[in-house]
Structures
1.
Amino acid sequence: MRFKFEFVSLSRQAVTIPLNYQYYLHSWFYSILSKADEQFAEWLHERGFVVKAYRYKMFSFSWLLFEKQAIQIVGDRMVISPNAQGSLIFSFYLDEIAEKFIIGLFTEQKINIRGTEFLIKTVKRLRDPKFETTMRYRTMTPVKVSLQLEQSQPTYLSPDHPEYGRLIFDNLQKKLLSVGERVTVDDDLQFKLLSDYRSKLITIKAGSPAQNKVRGFMFDFELTAPLRYQKVGYFAGFGESNSMGFGLVKVLSKNSK
């Protein structure tokens, strides 16, 4: 399921937040969830859905979405106009029964990013797309795919890398297995890059001893796969680190260029 959170800045003056705010949204989400079900929030944060040594949280989120005139980028900061209105998309691989829980939990909550607060006025369930075995997507947030050999630093792959499609599907298969879905060797799986790509370097926990720089890529692509692959990628996110806001996509029409 996907939800659109519509919010308003609570400041009557212009406010400034870091451009690398993904970790703060990630932390805020868990803080709100823990108010409703502390045990579940702790389980999701510490463990999640597991297959072998891999853990998946099965959700992702968009960047903060504002009208262009409401923000100004200054260096590594975003300046937001007084009382600016915006929106945020959260995407979950959850049963339909969770819809009322999510809407009730997040409506009228305050998003807090380094002391700057935004009040969520409405939470709306977004309509699911019609899933087909061949789908075209455009990334809304960077997709992170990496290779790591033993204890070396990870190598972040661009979508034209020869191993990229295999790693995308390997990740989707592990997510499916973690929630009890089946995966077979006969599954028809094809990844096709449809556009140029742009690199995005995101700093996680900026300014702390645990600071980490992570690279993802923005692009359009076509995916041919059984419907369960399409759904888990669309709702839980493509690639790695989805719970940090990586790998969220939107559906493109077949005639999009």
Note: The chain has five helices and 19 strands.
2.
Amino acid sequence: MPSESGPSRRRSTTSTSTAPPRPAALDPVDRAAELAAALALPVTRPALFAEALVHSSYRNDNPTSELASNQRLEFLGDAVISLAFSDALYARHPDDDEGVLTARRAALVSMTGLARLADRIRLAEYLVLGEGAERANERRRPSVLESTFEALVGAVYVDLGYAAARDWLIGLAAPELDEEPSVLSLKSPKSRLLEAAQARIGEPPTYRVLSVVGPDHDRRYVVEALVGGEVLGTGTGANRREAETQAAAVALERF
């Protein structure tokens, strides 16, 4: 696979402007071509780029489609994003120690962080969903935006190489890479609740799944956060992690 090592302090000159509204009638490959043009990405494998936009629900509804779902690209993109942001943070924040750099990266690659970048390029308008997922408004769900953004980065990496994927990501995430937030604000609610519980009662919080309902394309988890055996928060989400994060945020306000 193509690769290029070493951090880059240079910001990409690649356009990161938001994409124009997408006509609803475009097929997956046409949608991908329009998105690539809007992002000034010179893709050479449009079918691969289209695959990055295909949610698993579309494959369930269209089993004869030649396009695979984006799950394999999501796996690859996750690793590329982590390395690209590690490169950039290491170069841009030479006075930060390993702990602070790790916290910065965790905030960037979190579901909230990646969904924010997906919103910045209006990625939701280009998702290819099945009918049920469309009715459930999956295209606006943060966890779906996160996974699709990872798949998109995976496709850029496979097609154009690591340097192109890294530079595009660094340009897109420049505001977050350069900001100077407090270390506390970089930590997830689960991490903050863990530290608070350990400090106050000497034991970690626990999470209990109350229910899991709905079909695969519209799964809903309900989870409780407990500290010292007491329920302090309840959260819901499309997956257990999302529900636990919400429950932890509620628990923090009460703890």
Note: The chain has two domains: 28-181, 189-254.
